[in-house]
Structure formats: C-alpha cells, structure tokens
C-alpha cells in the first residue's frame, strides 16, 4: 500500500476540463444541416378545382414512431401536404412503440373530434377495433398502407402494393436476363424483416413473376431494413454464390449496406434492383456507376395523397377528374419501376 | 401457569439421546428434552451449544442421526418442515420467514389456503385470518395489509397466527424478543400466556435471563451439544446455577500464555463512536502488542462496531484515531492505508474469492504493490504468499489452489495471512474461529498471539466467551450497543461475563438471589 | 508487518500436526483450472464441425482454397464489430454487471459520428466523436450503477431505450451516409491479406486479454465480480472501478460503431439491432459466468466467431433465418448445460436412474 496521496485536485480539474470541452464539441456535432428533402406535395394548383379552398377541416394523424427512413418520410410528407392547404388544421399524435401505445394515443385524438383521421397503424388487425369505434363516432378514417380486416372500419384505404413490387422487380430482372440470353441465371434475393407480412408478399410476387420466365431464386437472405444488416447478409450471399446474374434487394435503406458489401467484394458481374425508391437509390441509378440499375417503388408519397383525399372526404367533395361525387373507398398505388431513363422524373419522389 | 401445573400437564414432546452430526462437527450429542402441554419450556445455552440445530430437528429441517423423538406419545421422524407443521409443531424463526409482498391473510394461509376446485376463497381466508389475529389479541391488524408494511412485532404476530392456523400444539420461538423493542416484549408475553392457557406448549429460546424468569416454567440447558440440565424450575433456580451449567467446557482449548512484557504505545483510540440503532458512545483503546477482546451477544452491536472502526460502515458520532491520525469515517481504503486490517465475520461472503487461487486471495489488499506500471506480477505475489503460507503452516501449502478446496481453519489463515503481507499494525478479527475445528483453533490462537508478540495490536470479537477470556489481554463486555464493563482478562471470569451480557448487572442478580 | 520465518508457529496442546492431504492428481478432464482450455477446445471443435458440414453441403465451394480463405476472412470480418463489443461486455459481466445498452450505444455513436457536422471534421473528428460518445454514455451507465445504486439491468435498459431515442432524434430517423472515404475504406483495407477490421478485433482482444490477466485493473475486475463485499473490505474502490467497467464497454461500442459505419458506409438509429443479446450470448458460450468473477477473453472471442460462422454457413446452405436463430438458441443452452453438468455428475445421474448397472438384469 502506498502512502502517497495522488494530487487528485489537479487531476480532477484536467479531467473535468477535457470532459467539458469534449461535450461542447460533441453537442455541436449533432446538427444535420442538409437541404431538406423537397416534400412530396401537390401545391394549390389553380387549374385543379379540388385545390380551391373549401370549408376549414381538422385532420388527425398518427403513424408509428419510426426508426426507418420510409416511415419518417410518411410523417414528413403528411405534415408538408397538410401545410400546403390553407383550410386544413393538422393534428398529429405520437403513436409510440407498439399497437397498445398507439391505441391509447388515438383515444385522446377521438375525444378532440377531428373531422377525419389519417392513420398508419402499427398493425392493421390490432387497430381494427379503433377504426370501427371512430367510424361509429362519425369520424371518417383513412387507413394508410396497413389494411384493417373489417371494411366498416375505414372510409378510405390507401396503400402500396407489396406483391406488385415483387412482381415489378421480377419482371425487370426476367426481361433483362432474357434480353441477355442467360439460360439458367443465378438470382439472389435480399429481403427485409422476415417476420413482416409485407416481406412475405414482396417475395411471393417476385417468385411468381420470375416463374413466368422459368427462373428461380438461388439464395434468399433476410436482413433487418438496416444498412449494417444489409451489408452482413449481402456479404454472406456473395460468398454463397460465387457467380450471380441478378439480385433483388427489397429495401433501398438496407441497400446502402448491400452496395457497400458488393463494392468491398469487388463484384460487378451482375446487376441489382432495389426497392422502395429512396433518393440515394434514384441518384445512384441516374449516375449508373454501381450495379444498382433499377428500383421498384413503394413510395411514401402515399401519405401526401392520403392527406389530400382526407381533406376532400371531410369537405364532402369528390375527386374532380372522376364522375363520382365522393372519394373512392380504396386506392392502391401501382409499383413503378425506376430506371436510368426515367430517374430524373422520379427524383422528387425519392425520400 | 404455576410450576406445579407444568409438572402435571400431559407430555407432548419427548426427546432422548438425539444425535446430529455435520461433517467435522457433532452438533447434538445426546440431547434430552421433555415438553408438557401448556408450559413455557425455556432452552438455554451459549452460542454453538446446539440450540439452532435442536430447533431444526424439531421443525423437521434436520433428521437426527440417532435417538428418539416422541410426539404425542408416538415415535416420529418428520420428512420435512411441512410434515412437522402438519403434525402440529410450528416454528417462529428469528428471521421471520414471511413473504413481504403478500398480504397478512395470504401469509397466514400460505400453502394451505381454504379453497375448492383450485380456487382460493380469499374472503374466507381473510375472515379466518382476522379471527386468528383476534385470538392473539391483535384484531386491529388488517388481514389485507401487505406484510412488508408491518413492523417487526406485527410480523411476529402474523407468524404466530400462521402457527395457530395449522392448529399447532407446540410453538417454538427462537429468540422472539430479539427483534422487539422493550415495551413490545410485555405484549409478547401476554400472547404467550394466552396460548399456554389454551393448552399449547411453547419452547422459548432466549439469552435474557430476566425474560426466562418472567415467562418460563421449566428450563433445559444445553452445552456442547449435550443437555447439561433438564427441567430446572425457571423462576427459582439461582442464576449462578444456570450460568454454571452453561459454562465450563468439556473440550478445553489451549491458549498460548500471555507475555510478561507490557504493551507498547497506543495504536488505536476510539472515542464516543456511535451509529443509531447499533451502538453508542463506545471508547476502545488498543496498544501495540495487545490483544483486546470484545464479548457480547449477537445483536449487541459488536460486529457493527468493528466494521465501523474499519470504515466499512460510516460512523455517525465519535472519532477513530490510528497512530495519532484521525481516520475519515466510512473509508476502508483510508483504514487500510493507516495500517488496519480486518478479518470479517462471514469468511465466505465477506472475505474470500472462493474460486480464486490462494495467492490471489492473500494479495487481494496489496496486489498493486507487487505490480509495476499497472502490470501485476504473479511470480512475486506467489512468492510472498508462499512465505505467509509457510509462516502460518497453511495446508496444503500450494498457493495456486482454489481457496474453496481449503478447510475452514485454513481459509481463515488465508484471510489473516492477507494482512501479514501489508503494513498492518492493527488487526481486527470478527469471530476468527467460527467453523474452525478444534485442532486448527489452537493454531489460530498461536498465530494471533505471535502477531501480538511482533507488536501488532489485535481487536477481537467472539461469541465464545472462553475464547475471549483465554486469548485477550483486556476484555470489553458489550450489551445492547454499550460497553458495560472493561477489565484485564485475568480479573474477570466466564460467569461474570455471561451474567453481564445476559442479565445486565451481576450485582443486581446476586443481590436479588440473596434477598430470595 | 512481518513475522520472521524462524518463529514458526507450532500446533500447541498435543494436537497432532495435520498432514497435508495428498494432492490427488486430477485428470485433465476434471481439473477446474483447465476448464477454460477445455471449453475453447470444444468451441474449436464446433467450428471444425461447421466447416465439415459446409464442405459436405457445398463441395464445389469448399474445394477451392482461395474461396475457403476468403470465407474465413468474411466470417472474421462479420465477427469484428460484435467481437469488440463482446470484449467490453466480458469485462462488465466478469465484474458482476451486465450492459444491455451496447447495441444502442453503437447506433448512437455511429449516428453522432456521421452527422454532416461531424463529417465536416474529417475521419479524426468522426472517430473521436464515436469514441467520446461511447465512453460518455458508458460513464453515464457507470455513474448510475456505481453511485446511483441502480441495478445494472435497469440502468442499461434505460440507456438502451434513451440512446436509441437520441440516435433517432439526431438522425431524423434517416439513414446517414458516410461520405468519408477514409472511414469507408477501413472495411476494404487488407494488410497482408487480412482485413483491417479483423486486425482491429485481434488487437482489441489482445489488449483485453492483457488487461484482464496481467494488470491490476483486471485483477480488480475479477475480485469485484467474484465477491464485491470482500473486495470492498480489502480496500478496493469498488464503485470507481465499476464505473470504469461501463466506460470501457462504452469505449468498445464507440470503436465498433466506427467499424460498422465503415462496413455499411452509413449509420442509422436502428443499427446494431440486438447486439447486446449476441454479445452476452457469445460471452456465455465462451465460459463467462453471468454471476461474475469468471470468464475469458479468448472464450468470448470464440463465442463470437462461432455465431458468425453459423450465420455464414446458413447463408451458404441457403437456409432461412428462423432456423438459424433456433440453432443459435440451442447452442447457448447446450453450452450452459455443459458448464453446469460435469462428467462425474452425469455418471451419478445415470447410476441413480438405473441407466447403468453393474450387472445386467434379465
């Protein structure tokens, strides 16, 4: 045991000073001053009779607290679109981390009596009862992307087409390989979170479309919609398949990692199709410097459209191009294929 | 109930020649006991006399190796605590075994809830629990209340209600007054009297003679696992008699002789040390080369005192001065730097890394001093540990062995040896020979005496009064958080100490007897 | 104090001096001190078995030595980030704690290091930020646990939730792309054929081994985890050290965040999902006792590599993820059972239940 007592006061001072300096530096580093993504909105186009101001309405909105770019874009788009209308008051409630939390938040929303509710549920089945309750209370519900099983639980259903996404990706790959005359191609698939129904639908569509060309998936890995998991699964996929003709990656966010793995492995003998349609992916396709040649959309722009339609529903108006005096009950967005040729027109819809 | 009535009640429990051995220890060595319905039968004995083991045999926790247990006239062997409970023997342990987060009623009927088809009748349980509490004169305790929120006395009553719920004919109470404040003891006695009036027998264990005099009918005394006296009248047996039956060892320990030389300069000066609820106003001096022993019952504040001097507990009042320098309260590191070492009471849970090698346990306090630039030096540590192992005659003398594989005595040597490696001037020993067999004890005594001969001051606590008297140069007797007597070891004997710790003033007890 | 060795303590009072019990030569299979070595050999056996299965399923790939070497590097690369975290986790668990926040701290460090503002400071700024954020958050864990007396499980669970939240807040829930070529090139750099990330892992593990086995820091860690009260009563600053352990774990998270950012050329709030469970599982199958006081860095490293090799093998065999997770779970259970059940107790069990008999009955 030493009897010398270290000069703690000076040490502490030094340590404290360093800690404060580091803290100050770090807090300065949290800013992300990037140019905000141009919102996917439709402005007050004077030629569009639907754009003309109507009765003032309040739109309630709820979407899960997202840790993923796509859902973040949903909320941003909804907000931006509502802001584009002078006659809309936008009331957002946090949906929390699970269906129960969202239900609780929505109950408070009902009490405030909005004219219409736009809702991206955590789980369509679990929030079906809420839909029924709101409709009974006379508040029309616009379901965004995750369907309620009960038709009485919503006024309008607007969603993307997961199966169609897989089909689009399958057709793109099938056509391209046929054009190249590849006899029995090696096709890889990197799916998203496997426990989600949407992933299963995408894969089913992909499989069905490839089957029409007589092709099958050689190896399928499921990542977690994150770049690091995409990197890991892609790295393993590349190991399993020393020669590949085409890959479909379900999600452009995880695609960042997938592309990193492909670059690191120096592989370029194949082409890749992405999914969802992120801004980065569309830029990459336009630049044409990576194996990413196309992406099939599942656009969060549906949130903007949902707000527009919700406004019309609340105001009792129909879509001006249609004959009907009311908004239709179901809108399913077609999955579009973005390639180098049309990338510039889609860039504003990238998220 | 009068002593005559106790003699006439029907015998419910009779033990004869009960033996229980554990590896290395003969805890019970032929115990006799006779308990009659409606009496309060007191069990008396020093620590280690076998009281706890006897209770556990009665409660069905231990099975005796030999001897006879007769319950209600029939020879029985309980397969477990449940069987004993079912037969009508309930035990109320000192650490009340209640479930804190269940209600009073749920605790009382735990394991035998009134139910049908697997559904518990909560209402019925609560009503019956209320009746039981009423029988104990405590109908005011709400049956729905969580047990956690009750004070110790309340929990004790719940334990008794639980015993009644099993329609117990014998209730064993292990030092029930130890958890109670002074004025609550009277209430306890009132309940005990009501129980005995209903024909229930009570086996009552306490260290406090005045309680035995007040509530007891007959006394059985245990010593070294044997009954040294049976069925003494609780009120009329003179204190001297009781004490002498408890003392006097059948196994005589050999203590090393005290040196003639006078102790050196004062190392430790403790003045007015106190912690609320534990001890107050304690003064202790320890000089170089001196062994100071503290005698006292569990709960007298002796272990707490040692830990506070060592800085393991924060002093609330008073000062600890070592080598003329005041120690900051609550800092073990400062105490160690000042040259104080401690071998705590619970060797395994407080002192040793059982899975680690001996040398690492020995160098636990000072491995840094063998290190250079933060890198440990196992070679130096092993060499140093080996020197101490030789000095203490550690067996086996293989410092790379895990401490777990050592006997209790050798484990204790490792703990003491730890402090021989550093600059320890004062060694605090809390129960140094607990769980140590007879041969190893003598060795430890010699080690302690040798340390003192080398100028180390020793402050020692032991539950075994002869050990304190035989080993120490000076003795402090503690009772209820205070030092009640301080004397050179040569000027005080075992009976005096026992009298002091059990009944308070020796003079008071003797004058009373003289008067009687 | 010293007692000279001439003054031998003698056993007085006629007690026969105890004879040292003969130190029975324990067989290698039963010697407790050899336990870590046995376990590591077992894990190497598992790795060899995985290799054999792979060779059986895909002889076309495994017959190509270049492919095999490359595949080993892939397995090690995928073990790199989680391996660094597991080294920190091993220290925390040996020290008697647990850190559930490692995945979240990687995400937070990674996101903080890849904001546009941080990226403007270049690679040094990014690395400094990741490490500082990791250590800072680790210190918060440590202070809450050591001085705030929170249970490690609760404190780090709270940090898990809070750090992911903060990461989402900073990133605006977007995937942040790293534009820094130096950071991105870390994942692709090889030195004498070995990926730089693998070298970093080996370096961290090597330093961790030295720290644990050869320094006073490591000794204190083992002592506190083995018996915190004994360590305290021996004068060891238990609280201060406990705090440092969580800071160390945070440091490892910061390093791992840079590695992961480099691999994925990006970072996001959802990154390093469930890394805490993978790290704990790897430490446990590597022989670290969850109650503290015992564990080895090498075992943990093998644990990580085994998991990484399983993921790789399942990809090569084109088996779905759910089967892979079931196998991982089974391996954890088997590893822990092996830790508890010794050979002798198995034979005892067999004897008690009449599974082995001296004489066959007919």
TrEMBL record, chain A:
Gene3D superfamilies: 3.40.50.2300
One GO location term (cellular component): cell envelope
Principal subcellular localization: other
UniProt keyword list: Signal
Sequence ranges of Polar residues compositional bias: 32-50
Protein name per its UniProtKB record: Sugar ABC transporter substrate-binding protein
GO molecular function terms noted in the UniProt entry: carbohydrate binding
Record's subcellular location: Cell envelope
Signal listed as a keyword: yes
The UniProt record lists the keyword Signal: yes
Domain Periplasmic binding protein: 59-317
Family as reported in the entry's similarity comment: Belongs to the bacterial solute-binding protein 2 family.
UniProt-annotated stretches for the region Disordered: 32-51
UniProtKB/TrEMBL annotation, chain B:
Pfam families: ABC_tran (PF00005)
Domain ABC transporter: 13-249, 262-505
Name this protein carries in UniProt: Sugar ABC transporter ATP-binding protein
Coiled-coil zones: none
SUPFAM superfamilies, per the entry: P-loop containing nucleoside triphosphate hydrolases (SSF52540)
Top-level taxon in the UniProt lineage: Bacteria
Annotated source species: Catellatospora coxensis
UniProt cross-references to CDD domains, sorted A to Z: ABC_Carb_Monos_I (cd03216), ABC_Carb_Monos_II (cd03215)
Keywords noted in UniProt: ATP-binding, Nucleotide-binding, Repeat, Transport
Molecular functions (GO terms): ATP binding; ATP hydrolysis activity
From TrEMBL, chain C:
Keywords from the named record: Cell membrane, Membrane, Transmembrane, Transmembrane helix
Transmembrane segments: 40-57, 69-93, 100-118, 124-146, 153-171, 191-212, 243-264, 297-317
Residue ranges, annotated region (Disordered): 1-23
Compartmental location: Cell membrane
Membrane association type: Multi-pass membrane protein
A Pfam family: BPD_transp_2
Transit peptide found in the keyword field: no
Protein's name in the database: Sugar ABC transporter permease
Organism: Catellatospora coxensis
């Amino acid at each position: 045991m030493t009897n010398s007592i270290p000069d703690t006061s000076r040490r502490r001072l030094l340590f404290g000073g360093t800690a404060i300096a580091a803290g100050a530096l770090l807090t300065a580093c949290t800013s992300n001053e990037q140019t905000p993504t141009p919102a996917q909105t439709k402005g007050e186009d004077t030629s569009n009779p639907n754009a003309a101001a109507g009765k003032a309405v309040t739109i309630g909105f709820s979407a899960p607290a997202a840790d993923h770019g796509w859902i973040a874009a949903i909320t941003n788009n909804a907000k931006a679109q509502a802001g584009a209308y002078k006659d809309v008051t936008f009331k957002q409630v946090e949906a929390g981390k699970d269906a129960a939390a969202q239900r609780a938040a929505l109950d408070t929303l009902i009490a405030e009596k909005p004219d219409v509710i736009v809702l991206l549920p955590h789980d369509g089945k679990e929030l079906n009862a809420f839909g029924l309750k709101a409709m009974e209370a006379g508040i029309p519900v616009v379901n965004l992307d995750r369907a309620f099983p009960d038709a009485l639980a919503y006024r309008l259903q607007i969603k993307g087409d997961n199966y169609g996404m897989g089909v689009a990706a399958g057709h793109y790959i099938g056509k391209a390989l046929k054009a190249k005359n590849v006899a029995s191609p090696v096709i890889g698939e990197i799916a998203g979170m496997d426990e989600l129904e949407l992933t299963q639908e995408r894969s089913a569509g992909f499989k069905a479309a490839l089957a029409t060309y007589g092709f099958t998936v050689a190896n399928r890995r499921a990542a977690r919609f994150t770049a690091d998991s995409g990197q890991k699964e892609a790295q393993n996929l590349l190991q399993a398949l020393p020669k590949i003709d085409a890959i479909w990656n379900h999600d452009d966010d995880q695609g960042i990692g997938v592309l990193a793995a492909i670059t690191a492995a120096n592989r370029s003998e194949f082409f890749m199709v992405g999914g969802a349609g992120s801004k980065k992916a569309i830029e990459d396709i336009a630049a044409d410097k990576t194996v990413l040649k196309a992406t099939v959309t599942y656009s969060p722009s549906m949130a903007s459209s949902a707000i527009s339609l919700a406004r019309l529903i609340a105001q009792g108006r129909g879509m001006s191009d249609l004959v009907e005096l009311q908004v239709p009950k179901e809108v399913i967005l077609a999955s579009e294929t973005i390639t180098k040729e049309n990338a510039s027109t889609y860039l504003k819809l990238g998220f | 109930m009068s002593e005559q009535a106790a003699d006439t009640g029907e015998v419910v429990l009779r033990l004869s020649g009960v033996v229980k051995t554990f590896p290395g220890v003969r805890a019970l060595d032929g115990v006799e006991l006779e308990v009659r319905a409606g009496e309060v039968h007191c069990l008396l004995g020093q620590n280690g006399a076998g009281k706890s083991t006897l209770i556990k045999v009665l409660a069905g926790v231990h099975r005796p190796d030999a001897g006879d247990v007769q319950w209600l006239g029939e020879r029985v062997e309980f397969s477990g605590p449940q069987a004993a409970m079912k037969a009508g023997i309930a035990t109320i342990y000192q650490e009340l075994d209640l479930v804190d987060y269940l209600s009073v009623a749920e605790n009382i009927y735990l394991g035998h809830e009134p139910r049908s088809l697997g559904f518990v009748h909560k209402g019925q349980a609560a009503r019956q629990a209320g009746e039981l509490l009423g029988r104990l004169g405590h109908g005011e305790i709400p049956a729905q209340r969580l047990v956690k929120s009750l004070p110790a006395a309340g929990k004790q009553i719940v334990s008794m209600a639980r015993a009644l719920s099993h329609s117990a004919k014998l209730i064993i109470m292990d030092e029930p007054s130890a958890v109670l404040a002074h004025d609550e003891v009277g209430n306890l006695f009132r309940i005990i009297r009501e129980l005995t009036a209903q024909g229930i027998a009570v086996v009552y264990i306490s260290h406090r003679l005045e309680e035995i005099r007040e509530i007891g009918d007959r006394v059985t005394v245990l010593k070294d696992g044997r009954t040294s006296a049976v069925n003494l009248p609780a009120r009329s047996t003179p204190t001297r008699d009781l004490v002498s039956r408890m003392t006097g060892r059948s196994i005589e320990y050999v203590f090393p002789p005290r040196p003639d030389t006078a102790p050196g300069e004062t190392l430790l000066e403790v003045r007015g040390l106190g912690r609320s609820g534990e001890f107050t106003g304690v003064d202790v001096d320890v000089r170089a080369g001196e062994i100071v022993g503290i005698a006292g019952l569990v709960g007298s504040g002796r272990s707490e005192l040692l830990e506070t001097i060592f800085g393991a507990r924060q002093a609330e009042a008073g000062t600890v001065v070592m080598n003329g320098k005041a120690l900051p309260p609550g800092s073990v590191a400062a105490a160690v730097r000042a040259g104080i070492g401690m071998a705590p009471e619970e060797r395994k849970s407080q002192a040793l890394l059982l899975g680690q090698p001996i040398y690492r346990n020995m160098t636990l306090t000072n491995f840094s001093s063998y290190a250079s630039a933060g890198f440990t030096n196992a070679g130096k540590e092993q060499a140093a540990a080996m020197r101490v192992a030789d000095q203490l005659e550690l067996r086996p003398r293989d410092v790379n062995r895990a401490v777990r594989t050592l006997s209790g005595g050798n484990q204790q040597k490792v703990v003491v040896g730890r402090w021989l490696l550093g600059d320890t001037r004062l060694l605090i020993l809390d129960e140094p020979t607990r769980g140590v067999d007879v041969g190893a004890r003598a060795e430890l005594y010699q080690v302690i005496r040798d340390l003192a001969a080398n100028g180390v001051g020793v402050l020692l606590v032991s539950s075994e009064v002869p050990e304190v008297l035989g080993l120490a140069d000076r003795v402090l007797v503690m009772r209820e958080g205070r030092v009640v007597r301080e004397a050179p070891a040569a000027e005080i004997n075992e009976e005096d100490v026992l009298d002091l710790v059990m009944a308070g003033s020796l003079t008071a007890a003797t004058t009373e007897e003289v008067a009687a | 104090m010293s007692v000279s060795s001439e003054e031998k303590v003698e056993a007085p009072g006629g007690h026969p001096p105890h004879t040292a019990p003969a130190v029975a030569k324990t067989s290698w299979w039963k010697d407790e001190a050899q336990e870590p070595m046995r376990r590591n050999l077992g894990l190497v056996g598992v790795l060899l078995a995985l290799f054999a299965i792979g060779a059986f399923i895909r002889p076309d790939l495994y017959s190509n030595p270049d492919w095999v070497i490359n595949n080993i590097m892939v397995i090690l690369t995928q073990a790199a980030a989680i391996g660094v975290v597991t080294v920190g986790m091993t220290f925390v668990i040996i020290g008697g704690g647990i850190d559930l926040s490692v995945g979240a701290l990687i995400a937070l460090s990674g996101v903080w290091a890849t904001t546009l503002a941080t990226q403007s400071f270049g690679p040094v700024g990014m690395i400094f930020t990741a490490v500082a954020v990791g250590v800072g958050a680790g210190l918060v864990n440590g202070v809450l646990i050591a001085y705030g007396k929170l249970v490690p499980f609760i404190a780090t669970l709270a940090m898990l939730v809070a750090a992911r939240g903060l990461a989402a807040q900073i990133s605006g829930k977007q995937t942040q792309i790293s534009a820094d070529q130096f950071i991105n090139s870390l994942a692709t750099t090889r030195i004498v054929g070995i990926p730089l990330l693998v070298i970093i892992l080996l370096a961290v593990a090597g330093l961790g081994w030295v720290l644990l086995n050869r320094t006073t820091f490591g000794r204190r860690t083992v002592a506190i985890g083995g018996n915190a009260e004994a360590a305290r009563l021996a004068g060891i600053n238990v609280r201060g050290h406990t705090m440092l352990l969580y800071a160390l774990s945070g440091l490892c998270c910061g390093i791992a965040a840079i590695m992961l950012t480099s691999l994925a050329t990006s970072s996001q709030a959802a990154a390093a999902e469930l890394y805490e469970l993978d790290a704990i599982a790897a430490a446990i199958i590597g022989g670290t006792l969850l109650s503290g006081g015992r564990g080895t860095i090498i075992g943990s490293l093998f644990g990580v590599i085994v998991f990484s090799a399983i993921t790789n093998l399942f990809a090569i065999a084109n088996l779905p993820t759910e089967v892979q997770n079931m196998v991982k779970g089974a391996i954890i259970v088997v590893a822990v059972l092996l830790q508890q059940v010794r050979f002798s107790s198995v034979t005892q069990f067999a004897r008690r239940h009449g599974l082995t008999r001296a004489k066959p009955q007919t």
